[in-house]
Specification:
The complex is a heterodimer of chains A (210) and B (258).
Chain A: H1 2-9, H2 11-45, H3 47-62, H4 65-72, H5 76-80, H6 82-107, H7 111-119, H8 124-155, H9 167-176, H10 179-207
Chain B: E1 10-19, E2 22-32, E3 37-41, H1 48-55, E4 63-68, E5 71-72, H2 78-83, E6 85-89, H3 100-110, H4 115-128, H5 145-157, E7 163-167, H6 175-192, E8 195-200, H7 203-209, E9 212-217, E10 220-225, H8 227-232, H9 236-257
Parallel strand pairs in B: 3-8, 3-9, 6-7, 7-8
Antiparallel strand pairs in B: 1-2, 1-4, 4-5, 9-10
Helix pairs in contact in B: 3-4, 3-5, 4-5
Classes of the chains: A mainly alpha (210), B alpha/beta (258).
Chain lengths: 210, 258
């Protein structure tokens, strides 16, 4: 097969770009979790914040990705290095599913269980760490899973601003009208997406309430 | 009853509570003596559960004061207050992701007890509430309703609190299991002499387990009577309860003969 031969011939670059891709997706997903999970918890506990936060995350989601990359390009520190920029944009996109699932997960915990815990004298942080988060963890992780899978796809566009990743092959292949090159980017990207899905899915299953 | 001689375990002083425009509780005065089982009896929405939650400060009064062991209950740190008061609710409120042992041992654990002492305490409590020791590794969903409720009681007793708040603990059980748990509650209370505040809308349950019955209606305390007094009471609300209860039995008996 032509594609396979092309990939084997260019294996060093395939590996490099895959690692770069993984770096973009991994880091942005971690950032999105660091921001999104606390935000989701906050809005689950303070219902008044819930509309503005979810609306903002929704609005970000509606900005076309190429446009978002473009918007961020002139921002001083960010624009200097395109991978920073790509990571920020990917983080923003990953926020919505993570915030929303954290919110849904925490709100879905049986109020009687939370009240029993509070009545037993657990502090609010003990309630969160010992009761609410463990009971919400599988819903939260399914948000992370969606975010990671979307990110793998979106990150291919980061190549348009020179951030690297498997998108490089795709854009190059488009310019060269060469399907082999396009597929050399698309196939590893698809495999990454599947791996992300299976990987987080595995975590989800193992952290769930027994 | 030592209510007049000793400091009451719980005392409500002119307590009222309102949420937005609803007066849930008003002008509420009540003393609960040490070691007694006070039943809060009333229909849904009469303010029983709110009254109970005022004690462990899950609800803060709009005005008035609640004293626990002579001290205003807003004077101590709220988590400290609650750890000294056992709390049992309907459907037990057990943590579904914890085993029976972890459920019962949670308060001792956050109180910093050593692991072996917690384990010994869990076994002691399981025995006390009539559950086999091997149940400690099970999860709540693997238990029957009656077993869950027993675990709920064991959990509330874990750190040996002087006061026990029970909010319709047997309300969701089938009549036979409920009867069994009421009987065991009496046996337990005979041994432990906790101060218990017990919420129910079931007169039979109130008569059976209460040392006194506080009848509530529309956020007010109607009267406080012993079970013997309650049955003979001329108070219209108490009488209405007794009549409804009696009518139910009569009607059931009549169906039997016709």
């Amino acid at each position: 097969m032509n594609v396979v031969r092309f990939m084997v011939q260019n294996r060093a670059q395939v590996v490099d770009l895959t690692l770069e891709h993984l770096w973009l997706v991994g880091l942005s997903t971690v950032f999105a979790m660091l921001i999104g999970i606390p935000l989701g918890i906050a809005i689950a506990h303070r219902p008044r914040l819930n509309k503005p936060v979810l609306a903002s995350a929704n609005i970000i989601q509606t900005i076309p990705s190429l446009a978002l990359f473009g918007f961020l390009l002139p921002v001083p520190w960010l624009g200097e290095r395109s991978d920073r920029l790509a990571i920020l944009a990917l983080t923003l996109y990953a926020l919505l599913p993570i915030i929303r699932n954290t919110y849904t997960g925490i709100r879905g915990v049986d109020p009687a269980v939370v009240e029993a815990g509070r009545g037993m004298g657990l502090t609010e942080s003990q309630l969160l760490l010992q009761v609410e988060l463990p009971l919400a963890v599988s819903v939260i992780l399914s948000g992370v899973r969606v975010a990671a899978v979307i990110s793998v796809g979106l990150a291919t566009i980061a190549a348009a601003i020179g951030a690297g990743g498997l998108g490089e092959f795709i854009f190059r292949g488009l310019a060269m009208v060469d399907n082999r090159v396009i597929l050399a980017g698309a196939i590893p990207a698809a495999i990454l997406a599947l791996l992300a899905d299976v990987g987080v899915g595995w975590l989800e299953k193992h952290l769930r309430t027994p | 009853m030592p209510a007049d001689t000793a400091t009451p375990a719980i005392e409500f002083r002119d307590v009222s509570f309102r949420v937005e425009n609803t007066q849930v509780l008003s002008g509420f005065n009540l003393q609960v003596a040490r070691g007694e089982t006070l039943v809060l009896l009333g229909r849904s929405g009469s303010g029983k559960t709110t009254t109970l939650k005022l004690v462990n400060r899950l609800v803060a009064p709009t005005s008035g004061e609640i004293r626990v062991n002579g001290q205003p209950n807003d004077g101590v740190e709220v988590t400290r207050l609650r750890r000294g008061i056992g709390y049992v609710i309907q459907d037990s409120g057990l943590f579904p992701h914890f085993t029976v042992e972890k459920n019962i041992g949670l308060v001792p654990k956050i109180e910093g007890w050593p692991q072996d002492r917690i384990q010994a305490r869990v076994q002691e409590l399981l025995h006390l509430v009539g559950l086999p020791p091997e149940i400690s590794t099970r999860y709540p969903r693997q238990l029957s309703g009656g077993q869950r409720q027993r675990v709920g009681v064991a959990r509330a007793l874990a750190a040996d609190p002087e006061i026990l708040l029970m909010d319709e603990p047997f309300g969701a059980l089938d009549p036979l299991t409920r009867d069994e748990l009421q009987r065991e509650f009496l046996r337990l209370q005979h041994r432990l002499h906790k101060t218990v505040v017990f919420v129910t809308h079931d007169l039979r349950e109130a008569l059976r387990i209460g040392s006194r019955i506080a009848l509530m209606e529309a956020g007010k305390l109607v009267t406080v009577l012993t079970p013997e007094e309650f049955i003979k009471s001329s108070d219209p609300w108490a009488a209405a309860y007794v009549r409804a209860f009696g009518d139910g039995l009569d009607a059931a008996a009549r169906r039997g003969v016709s």
